[in-house]
Please model this.
Amino acid sequence: MTQMTIRRGPEFSRVLGLGAARGENLVTNDDIAGPIDSSDEWIRQRTGIVTRVRAGADVSVLDLAEQASRNAIAQAGIEPGEIDAVILSTISFPHMTPGGAPTLADRLGASPAAAWDISAACAGYCYGIGQADALVRSGQSRNVLVIGAEKMSDFVDPTDRSISFLLGDGAGAVVIGASDHAAIGPTIWGSDGSRAELIRQTNSWLELREDPTLPFPTLRQEGQSVFKWASFQLAPIALAAIEAAGLTPADISAFIPHQANMRIIDQMIKQIGLPDDIAVARDIADSGNTSAASIPLATERLYRDNAVKSGDLALQIGFGAGLVYAAQVVELP
Amino acid sequence: MALPQNEVLAHLAEIVSEETGIDQADIQLDKSFTDDLDIDSLSMMTIVTLAEEKFDVRIPDEEVKNLVTVGDAVTFIANQG
Model:
């Protein structure tokens, strides 16, 4: 019997390049405090957010994704045609179908790359990294473009006090390709669908069709429960990602969690037991919560602040609606 | 078996003080977490989580809104223990 001959992948993968794009409008707390009967002081104290970045009406989530992708591809030093898979993580692309990834691939000149969207909310970027790492190491793909892109401002309710006031727009992208050494650790990920209601869309599209008087669907969250879950129950996931990479917390140079709330970030550092001298991503103060885009945006910010350098080991962890979570250690490009 | 209330109060006061910086002597049964001690909802969730660990009890998220005073929390924890 004739047997198949299949390509085998490299032993390791790594991040070849990183790119970012932010909404161009800085929205202050004072700008949004009125409809939620809040104040700059209250929002800063509860969330650490000073401003959030939001895109103009003429900028789409794919526009943000394209800009970030072009930057990532340029830094990776490859041509768009060398990308053979495009994974777009988003929960704010305004079409159920087709997904945004094929159009994005075409706009980038990466067609006929395999292209698909994933919906894993604020964990979506780390889910994408896990997929890309596996695709490269299996030999299925040579260069994978992973993008976290959101235009959350299309899905906010200005009168919502639970989550809308946190949200911003942006995109971050990376190219993942072969490596001669271990540079992306195993992804530790999971979900808890029994708590799906903690972060949710207000009503479904079908409900809106049944009752057109319902408001356009936006997001809500049970903030206290989400805070407790993220702050205290995800440290074992982060520690497992460190251990799976053969490291200890002392080996980590940068902590880049999803930018949900500054107080979650502070509590996670305590719970994980990270060293005091570590670089910590705190881009939420200026960019707000940009969902799937927040980790790559925060990474780009650490470079701009000269807080990290190429070769540093970063622990990244995403978590959000689902509930879903994913963590891995990556060597920064 | 219920835990002694004075023990629960003493340990809870330690936790609240650690989280907020409030003097333990000011953390008394009749004090409201929000109105008297000025503890916000996220600090309250931190206190609840640390109390769960300390007393080996479970305080459901939906129960937290009913813990208006320190005494409410002490009673709930004591009855769970």
